[in-house]
Amino acid sequence: MAQVTFFKCNGMTLGVASQHLGTDGHSTMHFINHWCKVARGIIQLDVPPFLDRTVLRSRSPPNPDLFYAIGYNPNSASGTAAGAPFTTTILKLSRKQVARLKIRSEQESTFQAITAHVWRCACLARKLAPNRMTRVYLVVDVRSRLKPALPCGYFGNAICKISAAATSEEIVSKPISFGAHKVRDAIDRVADEYARSVIDYIELAGKNERRTDWLGFSEADLLANSWLGLRFQDADFGWGSPELVRNAMSLVAGHVYVVSDRDGGVSVPISLETENMERFKKGFYEGLEE
């Protein structure tokens, strides 16, 4: 679905809603960016969509053992964050602040450094008990991780979820590099065998179980999405690149995005329990003041 809204200031917004079971962020931006080219009169698509979903069919017989072993933790949560009242805010980091976090993370990637920083701030804001297990669930694009890799232009959902786990005391008391290394190690575990195991799990699991697994993480957890690699700047309908691209809503407390800004900085839209948000915002900028 798409909705265009014009404002009296001569600005406008384009809202796009897609079904995540059928398409992920990479495919959605592929569609939008080629839509823009057609609007500008460029009919020939440089990367036509690849629509054959059989390249992600399950194995015969399905074997989800690796997903259960390192990815799916059905008994990890003592409660659920899905129904908690929450507030959403967007926190901005300048290029210098991002560089400072990357140094503290021992030069891990921008996403890993910021996610580790958010993880630490959330543990403090939520006042988690030192021995409380906390997880960051991560969404990983597997297009280039499969063997063979998915064809260029694959249009569909090609993401896997995995988690990085530690106690609250470890995340709070150790340097940011500890959490960043945890995030990196979790992402590195998403290779062909793990992705195939996730596909097999989806084949075997019922719809209700899959839906509960996705949103039923605890009030000690986060779900982090990287939008750093999405080519928002190519979404030009003839008026230039968009001034701003953001997610329209969050479904649950603990949902975090990391998004590139036009000025070289990064924005962090985050949803957190209303009672914890002010503490989180205060801690987020401690030691990062310009």
From TrEMBL:
Source species, domain of life: Eukaryota
A Pfam family matched in the record: Transferase
InterPro entries in the cross-refs: CAT-like_dom_sf, Plant_Fungal_Acyltransferase
Record keywords: Acyltransferase, Transferase
GO MF annotation terms: acyltransferase activity, transferring groups other than amino-acyl groups
Family in the record: Belongs to the plant acyltransferase family.
Protein name: Putrescine hydroxycinnamoyltransferase 1-like
Native species: Iris pallida
Lineage: Eukaryota, Viridiplantae, Streptophyta, Embryophyta, Tracheophyta
